[in-house]
Structures are given as structure tokens and as C-alpha cells.
Predict the structure.
Amino acid sequence: MRILPLVAAYAALALICALVVYRFTNIREYAALSRDGVATRGVIVGTSCHTQQSYRYTFQAEGHWFNGAAKGGAPKPCEALQPGDIVDVVYLPSDPTRNTSGDARQRRNSEALPGVAVTLLLPALALLRWRVSRRRRRLQR
């Protein structure tokens, strides 16, 4: 079989996977925060560690108070967090409602690695499955 059609199919499927990953994950948000974000300190105001492993925080930016919620990014495990604990926050100066706790670069990288894996592996597996099923049908004839 010619290789060019397989490469073209792989490239098309990989592009579709990349667009889906980019659209339905937080990579864009974390990329913007790591590129343009401003670091500040926030105060934890509540936790939901026993049910959702998340916490809520508040921080001041541009003279106003803003709220955020996160899973991870705190200096200690969620169960050890208490209201009043300090957490690092990164926000966009143009829109402080877009924020995250912890290191935005680390969060971006944590989202990007599975996204790259899906983008590269899923099309290969789909094409492999298609080739195997096609070969089986030919042998059954």
C-alpha cells in the first residue's frame, strides 16, 4: 500500500485531535496565564477536599477583590488546607476573573503532555485498527 495516503490520513486525524484537545482542555487558559499573568497572593476561604479535592480562594488585584477555585496548586495537600491559609495566585491583568492558584506554567505543562499523547497516539491507533480490519476482510474473501 502506498504510504502517502496513510500519512495524509494520519496528519488529518492528528489535526482534528489537536483542535479538540486545544478546545476542550485548559491549555489555552494556562498558556495565557503563564505568558501574560501577574503573580500575587491569595487567601483560602473554603475547601471541598473530602468530596472534590478543591478549594476556594480570594485575592486582590487592581484594587478589587476576586474569587477563584482550584484543584491542586496549594503549598500543602488539600486535606491540610484551612481557611486563612495563603496560596499563590496568577491572574490576567486584563481580566482578573481569569486566574489560577499555583504555577500556571506547571499547570499548562501538565495539561499539554496528555494532549500531545492523545494527538499523536489516537490517530495512529485508529489507522492501525482500520488497516487490521481491512486486512481481515481481504483474507475472508
